[in-house]
Amino acid sequence: MATKKARKKINLAGRDLICTEDWSRDELIHTLELAEDMQKHRFAVKYTKILRDKTFFMFFYNPSVRTRQSFECAATELGGHAQFLEPKSMRLKTATTAGETIEDAAKVMSRYACGLGIRILEDKIGAYGEGDALLREYAKYSDIPIVSMAHDKYHPCQGLADVMGLRKHLGKNLKGRKLLLYWGHGALGRSWCSVQEAALLYSRLGMAVTIASPEGYDLDPEVIKTTRGHCKESGQKFEIIHDPVEGYRGAHVVYSRNWMSPGAYHDGEFHKAEEVEKALKYTDWICDARKMKLSDNGLYIHPMPIDRGHEVTDEVASGPNSIIYDVAENRLHVQKAIMALTMAGK
Amino acid sequence: MATKKARKKINLAGRDLICTEDWSRDELIHTLELAEDMQKHRFAVKYTKILRDKTFFMFFYNPSVRTRQSFECAATELGGHAQFLEPKSMRLKTATTAGETIEDAAKVMSRYACGLGIRILEDKIGAYGEGDALLREYAKYSDIPIVSMAHDKYHPCQGLADVMGLRKHLGKNLKGRKLLLYWGHGALGRSWCSVQEAALLYSRLGMAVTIASPEGYDLDPEVIKTTRGHCKESGQKFEIIHDPVEGYRGAHVVYSRNWMSPGAYHDGEFHKAEEVEKALKYTDWICDARKMKLSDNGLYIHPMPIDRGHEVTDEVASGPNSIIYDVAENRLHVQKAIMALTMAGK
Amino acid sequence: MATKKARKKINLAGRDLICTEDWSRDELIHTLELAEDMQKHRFAVKYTKILRDKTFFMFFYNPSVRTRQSFECAATELGGHAQFLEPKSMRLKTATTAGETIEDAAKVMSRYACGLGIRILEDKIGAYGEGDALLREYAKYSDIPIVSMAHDKYHPCQGLADVMGLRKHLGKNLKGRKLLLYWGHGALGRSWCSVQEAALLYSRLGMAVTIASPEGYDLDPEVIKTTRGHCKESGQKFEIIHDPVEGYRGAHVVYSRNWMSPGAYHDGEFHKAEEVEKALKYTDWICDARKMKLSDNGLYIHPMPIDRGHEVTDEVASGPNSIIYDVAENRLHVQKAIMALTMAGK
To answer: Can you tell me the distance from the alpha carbon of B307 to that of B287, in angstroms, rounded to the nearest whole number?
Structure first.
């Protein structure tokens, strides 16, 4: 926990949040504590005035239900308004087409809004990393905070929502707890952003990390390296295994989700159909009650929407150790906290 | 009218509204009385605080202008915010595709919002009744009220808006008044929801009902049975006729609108083009001034948008006995009343 | 400047704004002065209560980013809410299709909202002037103010935002200042609305006007005639030239933007591809630093989004004399002022 002294100095006004790695551990804990208080006092006047009559822009390059719902609610509950924008209708300049530069777009939006959220995933980019680069270019030219609403590399709001759930169900000291980050087979060819954010953030807060997937489903090597470093720093185990069962042993948290392979991008495109076809063959890779019995009364966690019957059985997803709805609710609270800390007074 | 004693006991907090039949007669009258007061004191502080900073979700499986405008206004005028959501971007699980279950979607939304409105009509379903089943499944899993914003079977908000208009123009006691529910020919192949809701609700409030259409345009037999029962209970006449003129005699209210035939669904699809082609042949079936003369100074009512020149002549639709704009306005007030009664305090 | 006496009498409640020509000079100055105060005191309580809990409808026949962002922000900052509506989902009656009349649509919307903004440009109409006619038909039937959010003929909010920028950078007395309205070549086949509004409004406020374009890019003759009249009235020069350089001499303001030719419409359609192909040949027609040196320390102005590299070089657009971001910001303030003056109390 952040010491009182350290906490007093925390000022996040104007800061971007593209990955939790961009913020200090104290800043993240401070955000979580505010989110927890916001959950307790959801419509308290001290919170409903923070963005009164202010505008938050949401840029959805990719559609989303949960993220849109929770961000728009968050702005509303802080007294402000979130504009739902789909940049497909923006004539942005590219290498081959006329249109507006990101510099111009960002500078004008900074005059109107108190913050900008951006979501950009697989099928809207031609290679892994392009989404992250886009967010960082917006951040470069904006005078207002940029918040990732999930992009190809990271999903900081999801990571914080997860941890808020873990703090509730496991206690605030997560040190020494074991995360199993488990590749569930599935029909959706999913992004790396949520699982990478989880690996980075959970390990940073002192958890041991086991990543289990079939061969050929490596995540971003840079993320793995950083995660391994976090584990080492806090004296925890980090491992990558390719067995569908062994990782469950002793796990306190099982995060079972599908993700794409590194080969999903080639020829400048995201090949979802190939990914799905390949992934659906691994029918052993499902989180089920039999495997969960090997865990240490492990919690089941998932960022939703869940692909039930592939990533996890109904029995586990709807079972007593599943904290999926709590985590989904936490999206609202952590996003309110992030917006309040970075955008108030703008 | 609800007696004072009965009214005191009315508590609609948390209740769904999928059809007016789901609510008691006293509950409906109570809602209308609140709507009427809300019209009189539209921006009074007692009303503008009811949903302050709360979120209402609107799910438009089918697009709409009027319904969207009036629901979003309603939330705004109660101090809250309505999110416009199009579930086409939701990856919902179906028999053949991976995605999220309604249980998961409903449980998460219950964490964010104070209520959920759903609109689903003909072309988004494969058979009559599927829309109603969908709403009831959402209601089963939600902790927040579900309100129909028009679905294949019913349109409770329209029914209440109609009656609010009748109460203004005919007085609060509608007993013994005659409704002519009239099939106007037209080019839109329209849903049964508005006319069925009218039959059920007007008869429940003591009106006599004549349904007039060409042969082959029967409505849902269950709705007809219930309507017949309501008429019988209050000693009023109920009849179904197939003459384009006779029903006008003595009518106090003429509701002229097109509706599809029971054969509109076959082979798992809604066949609009067939419906339109068939309907346009019945050129005698139009509400006009000549026929209206047979009525008892009858009011003209229609849920809008009107297909002028088919369902009704301009002379009648824009004439002195037309209450269409009042009824359209009432959508706002009754929806505010419904939201206030079911969603406040959530 | 409006005299105090004249200003006292200004009452714009209920007025439409389709072109600045529809308002008196005093009314326009009054609006600008309010916008300037709103910029200074952006979230002052006197302003954030003006449209509290009221609804403003935005009809986007054409998509837009800037206009949507600034109008929705404007409503939010006045305490109200702007509904983003795309009339493509409205079943409006046309010569050949069944649907709702504009009369019906306008009369119902007048019951719900405090104002209606409409945007309709080139590709949604079949001939120049149809957009303007549509707005005037909505105005005829509405009981609430209609505001142009850019249409084929005019763009009053942009004109006022421009002038607010000029007043800041050149002083409030614009008399005798020279505007160069310059056709920049470009790949977007742009509307006449912004440049026509600029010609009309700048000249009305006493500026001299030079319009420079290649042969074949005449604007609306009626607009030219009115602009010429304004210049004559205040004793200022008006000229149309076809040289890409000469007009820069002595200019205080350079407005460089692409616009379509009068031949863009034929056979009942807007032919964008033809326009772009033709326009891209005029590579001399670009606003650059070399030409700007001929000006009298001229400001660079553009309504954005800018087609950089065609309409203007980066050096000028991002240079010290560019006021593009200020003008873009002004959209917010003038729109707030317009809404406050015309829609408050509704």
So the answer is: 11
Q: Which fold has domain B162-323?
A: Rossmann fold (3.40.50)
Q: Which helix (H) or strand (E) element contains residue A148? A: strand A146-151
Phi, psi of A8 (to 5 degrees): -60, -30
Q: Does B101 touch chain A (CB under 8 A)?
A: yes
For chain A, domain boundaries = 8-154+330-343, 158-327
Residue A3 has pLDDT above 80, yes or no: no
Specify the residue for token string 């200019």. Answer: C251
DSSP labels, C56-115:
EEEEESS--SHHHHHHHHHHHHTT-EEEEE-GGGS-B--SSS--B-HHHHHHHHHHH-SE
By the 10 Å C-beta count (0-12 exposed, 13-18 middle, 19+ buried), A215 is classed as exposed
| Average pLDDT, integer, range B169-179 | 98
Q: Which amino acid is at C206?
A: G
Say yes or no: A272 contacts chain B, CB-CB below 8 A.
Answer: no
The yes-or-no answer to whether C4-154+331-343 and C157-327 have a common fold is: yes
List the Cα angle B118/B122/B124 in 5-degree steps. Answer: 65
Q: The whole model's pTM is what?
A: 0.96
Which residues touch B277 (CB under 8 Å, ≥6 apart)? none
Kindly provide the b/e burial profile for residues C227-265, where b requires at least 16 CB atoms within 10 angstroms of the residue's own CB: bbebbeeeebebebeeebeebbeebbbbbbbbbbbeebb
Q: Given CATH 3.40.50.1370, say whether it is the number of domain C4-154+331-343.
A: yes
User: How does pLDDT run across C89-111, given as a tens digit for each residue?
Assistant: 566 666 666 678 999 999 999 99
> Is the ipTM, as predicted for this complex, more than 0.90?
yes
pLDDT band at C1 (very low <50, low <70, confident <90, very high): very low
C68/A108 Cβ within 8 A: no
**DSSP secondary structure code for residue B43 in this structure:** T
Instruction: In whole angstroms, give the CA distance from residue B231 to residue C24.
Output: 62
Q: Which residues of C touch A87 (CB under 8 A)?
A: 65
The minimal CB distance from C304 to the residues A83, A108, A113 is found for: A108
pLDDT at residue B92 is higher than 70: no
Confidence (pLDDT) at C6: 60
Cβ distance C55 to B76 less than 8 Å, yes or no, reads: yes
Residue B140 distance to chain C (closest CA, Å) = 31
* CA dihedral sign, ordered C191, C194, C198, C201: positive
Q: What is the pLDDT of residues A7-47, one digit of tens each?
A: 668 999 999 999 999 999 999 999 999 999 999 999 999 99
A93 has pLDDT over 90: no
Q: Is the pLDDT of residue B99 over 90?
A: no
* Strands (DSSP E) found in C222-332: 238-241, 253-257, 265-266, 269-270, 299-301
**Cα(B215)–Cα(A224) distance, rounded to whole angstroms?**
71
What subunits touch chain C, counting only 3 or more CB pairs under 8 A? A, B
The topology under which CATH files domain C157-327 is Rossmann fold (3.40.50)
CATH class of A158-327: alpha beta
CATH topology of domain A8-154+330-343: Rossmann fold (3.40.50)
Mean pLDDT of chain B: 94
pLDDT digits (tens, 9 = 90+) for B268-279: 888 989 999 999
Superfamily of domain covering B4-154+328-343: Aspartate/ornithine carbamoyltransferase (3.40.50.1370)
* pLDDT confidence tier of residue A134, bands split at 50, 70 and 90: very high
